Amino acid sequence: MTPSILKLLEILKEQLAVSHRKIAALAFSALMLGSVAAASVAFADGIDNPPEASASPLDNAIDQIENKEPPIAVAPPEPEPVIEQTPPPPTPEARVVEVQENTSFFGLSIGAYDITHDRTAAAFNLEWQPGTRIVGILQPLFGAFVTTRGTTMGYGGIGTPFHIGKRVFVMPSFAVGAYGRGGGYDLGRTLAFRAGAELAYEFDDKSRIGLNVHAISNGESLHRKDRTEIISLVYTVPFNLFSGRPKPQTMLVAEPAPAPVEAPAEAEPAPAPVADQPSETVQ
Prior knowledge:
Layout: H1 3-45, H2 57-66, E1 94-98, E2 105-113, E3 121-129, E4 139-147, E5 152-159, E6 162-164, E7 168-180, E8 191-202, E9 208-217, E10 227-238, H3 240-243, E11 250-254
């Protein structure tokens, strides 16, 4: 053989030797990798699996979407109740009323004195009733009378006036005073008591005309020996007719309007089932 061929054969031989070494190295590396992988699997099998973490609301929503669950129906909010506005009450009607001041009264009586005894005489009585009331119902009164026989008495007391209907005026009264016999009946003492009543018809201007009946006693009893009496016709007028005070004025008073009648509230319709109401899909 020629030297060139021999040289080529040596080169091929060297190349084959290198290739055998590389193949051996690769086979060893593959064997080592296989051993490591097998050991890793065995070690992983010996470790307990960690507990699964609880799913968050977002994870649940994503799972529902991925699993293609049906959409959740959300009921719409209930409408706010409608408040009905009540119309303002009508303007009350006005009426005219009379404003009556606390008016004093002056009375004049003419009648008969001592009817039950033999000393009958004409009697004249003057009486003043102030424009005040005690505890709202008791009318103070002050007066005096004189007879044609010279009998006199001055007194002060109280009465209880009231009306029967619109025109009939009644006032029982009681008074205490000093009695002077004169030529009249002797009561046996100066201190005397007068009890009786007035029955009268009242006019529009508050004046009245009627009858007075009073018994005058010494306080021991009402027997005829301890008393005398006066029956007279009386005319009583408001004191402002003499004093020139202005008459009671009139004024407008608003009548209270009747309270509005509230209509019964209508029953609200029952809400429709959730399936029939429009729904909002949670995305």
